[in-house]
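Inverse folding, one chain.
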């Protein structure tokens, strides 16, 4: 088959014992000689004709973004896509990776849904983990995990867990819900080992009138411990397969999945499977836990986010709570953006994906249409779970595999269908739908609701013909990742709710009115007229009193730090930044309405321009222009090369749009660089002055001092992010900005006003040299330019002086018009330059106004805030006027 990436093996999900080596999952709770343990472990899978867990590689490294969070102790797999910023940890694997793992998912790629920090449980404390069964029972039980292992029968069987939010991004594209954007990989399967819940509950002997089983975890959240409930009679029914699990694919549960003990409820939404289990409470009423009431519900479709926030009755109605999963399916192949070459291709293409039913109901058919539902074809289905069902009783993963009497289907199944490539070439999309044994079939149209849960319309993959290729597109990409056919349809003006996937129907009256357009929720305080400058904003870019900008308006996040459902961390990481994209994408209408309370002013024009996240290039600009920079929109450059200058400075070379392009940055001005944290998508913006000559074609070089994290202090977000950028990565640039410009030959402008200068006093510290260097070099390189320069450059050590060789060369060639002085606070013994900080004494000696004669003189200053402040005071004392000073 002539498919172009991603590639895959057809039979991977059917991996059998006869295939390659058996996997050797690590056994974190066995302290025995590990070689032997691995061997035993492998043996248990070798014995039977059942799907094997995929090879696992437990992550060993704490990922960079996690280091700043309460989960900073927890290593994770970097392939996982974060759906709610950095913290809490809510992730799914790329759909193709998930599908390629096969029937069972490795613990490191298993989706994670955490409402808060992960409770940390040390291995030595696991046997003593205590939990209780209480409430309406004759015989309340308190037991430890050790007791559970010793006193109860251990069972092992496969279970698929699905978050009720699976496929929610599709709902969010139609209309923002109160939930974050899951793609179609909020589903995973593992072999769970533990005690069947009915065994345990029966021991406690529920009293008459008891109808519910409430469960509570150890994770303390803004609204209490996580908890929920299910019907007691479900918990008592072994066919439903509810389990208290401590193992997953033969190894101890990993921390993200409930280590050391969790509930596993097959066939129901994942939200009921409480992790880090501490309490089971038998009750007459459903759980009154906040998370039971305000989460995992499908409210009627006409209830808007605002309505649901204003009237709690919607949440109290137990009829809208969801338990059994809805019938669902998705296509894994063709993958999103997969291409199929028509030339020399095999005659058939195998379309495939997953399907699952709810409440233990078997998927009884999966159907595919190439003509939008006029005709359907029946796909083949592989029920891997049945191969476990057919096993004779045997030991597996520390429990007994014996599914005799378990009729229910607790796992997903995989479907596939061969379609002639020429038929694909003629079709414009592939839809799939599944049906369960109760004939519950996936609907054609989306049922939108406030929480966006249980989304299960036909899964659509579009087919575009591009020359000799077919290119496939999935409905969406998870989280804030751009792409997907729905976004494309929406951007093209299609109304996704028109009952025809937003496509324009033929015929004169075809364009039906838009049925429901969500109103924009006002997010500002009426009548508030407080203009805030970018400098004021920047004072609030730290943990305390974080301010952030949405749509040019300033919000103070301080009072909401504790209550923010996404945790304080996500507000803090937006501090001082424009978070419009991120905020608008993640938050519901209710959250937006709450913003009014935190609104404190509006960013001024200059600030807006500086922070603007406008990505759109000017209209009608087909050809890239002669000049790269645009003051009002972000332009993309590509990281071309990194050169290491010293242990903490690098030169980053960026490629402009084409070889003949100039940067378009006047001497003395700066540009802004915007990076997105690859994980959190958070935008980081800083201004820089390139060190390459402004006339350089096709490229620009930026010198960056990297502020690494140290024990005492956090380093620089921007410089670290830049350091981590891979070659070939896009970076956004905007500019020019700055109030100063050097026109040459003694003429400059300040805020547009022309000024003549005979002598420049240039004072800089550390990386503050970069804007100064631009001006200095322009003067030195122009033989006709008679302007004098006195440059005072302060650093700690000799190695810290940036651009020293270039500066020295320029100075040597122009001795008549320049004086170059370095001062070091930690000079080497043989240092011949100045010593000490740039402060009053040194300035008095070398920069007294009187030394600069009668002519017009001007001081350019650039350095850390403290330096600029002390220089400012000192200069005023030695005869300089504020009008003479310019701070970059
Ligand atoms: N204690 C606790 N249990 C929890 C949650 C949680 O945040 N805390 N999240 C629930 C939700 S919504 C889902 S979908 C599943 C996810 O389980 P997983 O992270 O192991 O995939 O756990 C459920 N159990
Ligand atoms: Mo969930």
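Residues assigned per position:
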């Amino acid at each position: 088959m002539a498919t172009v990436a991603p590639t895959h093996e057809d039979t991977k999900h059917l991996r059998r014992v006869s295939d390659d080596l058996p996997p050797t999952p690590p056994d974190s709770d066995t302290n025995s000689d590990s070689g032997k343990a691995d061997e035993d472990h492998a043996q248990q899978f070798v014995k039977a004709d059942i799907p094997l867990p995929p090879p696992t590689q437990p992550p060993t490294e704490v990922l960079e973004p996690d280091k700043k969070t309460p989960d900073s102790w927890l290593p994770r797999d970097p392939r996982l896509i974060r759906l709610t910023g950095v913290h809490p940890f809510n992730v799914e694997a790329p759909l193709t990776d998930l599908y390629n793992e096969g029937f069972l998912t490795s613990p490191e790629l298993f989706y994670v849904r955490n409402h808060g920090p992960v409770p940390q449980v040390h291995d030595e404390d696991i046997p003593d983990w205590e939990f209780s069964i209480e409430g309406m029972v004759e015989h309340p039980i308190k037991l430890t995990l050790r007791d559970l292992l010793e006193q109860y029968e251990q069972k092992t069987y496969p279970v698929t867990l699905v978050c009720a939010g699976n496929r929610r991004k599709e709902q969010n594209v139609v209309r923002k819900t109160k939930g974050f954007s899951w793609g179609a990989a909020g589903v995973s399967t593992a072999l769970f080992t533990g005690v069947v819940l009915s065994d345990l509950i029966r021991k406690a002997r529920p009293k008459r009138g008891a109808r519910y089983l409430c469960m509570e975890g150890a994770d303390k959240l803004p609204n209490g411990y996580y908890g929920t409930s299910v019907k007691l009679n479900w918990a008592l029914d072994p066919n439903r397969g509810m389990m208290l699990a401590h193992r997953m694919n033969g190894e101890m549960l990993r921390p993200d999945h409930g280590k050391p003990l969790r509930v596993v409820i097959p066939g129901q939404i994942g939200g009921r499977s409480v992790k880090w289990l501490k309490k089971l409470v038998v009750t007459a009423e459903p759980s009154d836990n906040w998370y039971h009431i305000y989460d995992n519900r499908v409210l009627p479709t006409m209830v808007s986010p605002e309505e649901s926030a204003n009237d709690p009755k919607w949440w109290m109605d137990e009829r809208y709570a969801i338990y059994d999963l809805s019938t669902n399916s998705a296509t894994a192949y063709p993958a999103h953006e997969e291409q199929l070459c028509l030339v020399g291709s095999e005659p058939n293409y195998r379309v495939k994906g997953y399907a699952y039913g709810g409440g233990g109901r078997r998927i009884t058919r999966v159907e595919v249409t190439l003509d939008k539902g006029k005709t359907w074809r029946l796909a083949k289905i592989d029920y891997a779970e049945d191969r476990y069902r057919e096993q004779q009783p045997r030991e597996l993963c520390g429990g007994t595999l014996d599914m005799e009497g378990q009729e229910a289907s607790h796992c997903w199944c995989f479907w596939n269908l061969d379609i002639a490539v020429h038929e694909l070439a003629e079709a414009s999309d592939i839809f799939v739908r599944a049906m369960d044994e109760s004939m519950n079939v996936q609907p054609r149209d989306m049922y939108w609701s406030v929480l966006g849960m249980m989304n299960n319309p036909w899964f659509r993959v579009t087919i575009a013909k591009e020359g000799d290729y077919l290119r496939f597109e999935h409905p969406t990409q998870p989280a804030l990742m751009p792409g997907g056919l729905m976004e494309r349809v929406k951007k093209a003006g299609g109304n996704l709710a028109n009952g025809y996937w937003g496509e324009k129907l033929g015929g004169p009256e075809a364009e039906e009115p838009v049925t429901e357009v969500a109103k924009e929720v006002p997010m500002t305080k009426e009548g508030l007229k407080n203009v805030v400058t970018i400098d004021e904003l920047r004072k609030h870019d730290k943990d305390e009193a974080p301010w952030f900008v949405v749509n040019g308006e300033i919000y103070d996040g301080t009072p909401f730090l504790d209550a923010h459902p996404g945790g304080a961390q996500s507000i803090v990481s937006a501090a001082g930044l424009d978070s419009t994209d991120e905020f608008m994408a993640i938050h519901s209408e209710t959250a937006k309405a709450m913003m009014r309370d935190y609104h404190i002013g509006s960013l001024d024009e200059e600030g807006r321009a500086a922070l603007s996240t406008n990505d759109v290039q000017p209209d009608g600009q087909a050809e890239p222009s002669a000049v790269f920079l645009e003051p009002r929109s972000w332009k993309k450059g590509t990281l071309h090369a990194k050169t290491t200058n010293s242990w903490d400075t690098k030169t980053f070379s960026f490629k402009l749009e084409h070889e003949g392009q100039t940067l378009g940055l006047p001497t003395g001005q700066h540009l802004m660089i915007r990076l997105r944290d690859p994980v959190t998508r958070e935008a980081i913006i800083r201004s820089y002055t390139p060190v390459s000559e402004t006339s350089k074609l096709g490229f620009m070089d930026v010198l960056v001092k990297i502020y690494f994290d140290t024990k005492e202090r956090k380093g620089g977000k921007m410089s670290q992010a830049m350091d981590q950028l891979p070659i070939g990565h896009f970076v956004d640039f905007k500019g020019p900005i700055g109030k100063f410009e050097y026109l040459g030959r003694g003429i400059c402008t300040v805020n547009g006003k022309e000024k003549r200068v005979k002598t420049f006093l240039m004072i800089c510290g550390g990386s503050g040299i970069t804007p100064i260097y631009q001006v200095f070099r322009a003067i030195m390189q122009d033989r006709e330019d008679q302007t004098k320069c006195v440059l005072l450059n302060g650093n700690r050590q000799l190695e810290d002086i940036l651009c020293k060789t270039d500066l020295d060369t320029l100075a040597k060639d122009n001795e008549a018009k320049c004086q170059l002085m370095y001062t070091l606070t930690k000079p080497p013994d043989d240092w011949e330059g100045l010593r000490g900080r740039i402060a009053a004494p040194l300035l008095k000696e070398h920069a007294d106004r009187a030394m600069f004669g009668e002519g017009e003189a001007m001081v350019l200053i650039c350095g850390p805030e403290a330096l600029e402040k002390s220089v400012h005071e000192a200069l005023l004392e030695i005869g300089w006027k504020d009008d003479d000073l310019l701070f970059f």
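The two ends are 60 Å apart (CA to CA). Residues 113, 163-165, 270-271 surround molybdenum atom (ligand 2) (CB under 6 Å).
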